[in-house]
Design brief:
330 residues; alpha/beta; 2 domains; 8-stranded mixed β-sheet; 8 strands; globular
């Protein structure tokens, strides 16, 4: 990865990356040094730089605010749905098309095996290269994407397969063509039908969880969220544009939206937070995959052990319990 690519990171993380690159440069100098005296000097410098790096990293990542976590959720090196599918599932067989209009690459669906259990897996696909991101609308699905997902979920119900859904979208595609093809109806139908599917459903927000775009494949029995992800009725930029007519106030919006995992857990929306390696999932993807595997397996085993009627009643109560509020006296 080039220096330019490595610096395509959130502003608050850039000093850390710059220091890491400096340490790597000195390590290369150490490997190429001929004299013992030079090697000792370079090694002592590396030791001091690593101490500075530890202090800087602690200072940054121990004081993250909601806007920082939003930026981490969008980190260019953060694992995507395709990475999780490749690392956690065997025998993945992609299923395409909505049998009505076309296939939407912004949502991927398919059969797979998770730790010996056959399942249906799906998720938002953002793409990695610029060409892929443009093709996937940066994870913003059209109505055919949600219709595709719903068809596959009904197929999973037919074959009694659990569903695992990875959420990572700033929102559904807002273009006029999507509206012409029934965007709101497609999402509403998906929400309604998912709530009644008679199979276990686990949703995991791995990055962005924005608006109806997230809800379109995000109704289920267990709601999990990564430590540096967010889940919100609207993106911080969209909220700032509406409230203050200034998208640059996104950091203020992030604070008032209560979109961080801890807020969501307190509000009873999320069931559990999946921890990430220190500094974010992008800093140790393998450990991230191991954490996700253990959490998914735990919740899947719990849900698979339930009688289907108990499963449906618990889901009903979970959904009914969301959005509770207490009226305070004026």
């Amino acid at each position: 990865m080039s220096g330019v690519d490595r610096l395509n990171v959130p502003e608050f993380e850039r000093p850390i990356v710059e220091l890491e690159m400096r340490i790597e440069g000195r390590r290369m100098d150490l490997a190429n040094a001929d004299k013992e005296e030079d090697r000792k000097f370079i090694q002592s410098e590396i030791d001091e730089l690593e101490k500075d790096l530890k202090k800087l990293t602690d200072s940054v990542f121990n004081n993250l605010d909601p806007w920082d976590r939003v930026q981490l959720s969008r980190h260019p090196n953060r694992p995507l749905t395709s990475d999780y599918i490749g690392a956690l599932f065997d025998d993945f067989q992609e299923l395409q098309g909505d049998r009505s209009y076309m296939d939407d690459p912004a949502i991927v669906t398919g059969f797979a095996t998770f730790e010996g259990t056959k399942c249906m897996v799906m998720g938002h696909r953002k793409g990695k290269t610029l060409q892929e991101r443009l093709r996937c609308n940066f994870g913003c699905a059209h109505p055919e994407g949600y219709r595709k997902a719903l068809r596959k979920m009904k197929m999973a119900e037919k074959f009694k397969l659990p569903i695992i859904s990875f959420i990572n979208t700033p929102g559904a595609y807002p273009g006029i063509q999507a509206e012409e093809r029934g965007q709101s109806q497609a999402i509403a139908e998906a929400i309604r039908e998912m709530s009644g599917l008679r199979v276990p459903i686990i949703t995991l927000t791995i990055g962005e969880g924005g608006s109806g775009g997230a809800l379109g494949i995000g109704v289920g029995d267990r709601y999990l969220i990564m430590e540096n992800a967010y889940y919100s009725v609207i993106s911080p930029e969209g909220c700032a544009a509406i409230l203050w007519h200034d998208a640059k106030k996104a950091s203020d919006a992030a604070r008032v939206l209560r979109l961080t995992p801890n807020d969501l857990l307190e509000l009873g929306i999320m069931d559990e937070i999946v921890p990430e390696p220190y500094g974010g999932a992008h800093r140790d993807p393998r450990r991230t995959f191991d954490n996700v595997r253990s959490y998914l397996l735990k919740h899947l085993n719990d849900l698979m052990a339930l009688d289907i009627e108990d499963l449906m009643e618990k889901r009903y109560q979970k959904l009914r319990g969301m959005g509770k509020y207490i009226e305070a006296a004026a």
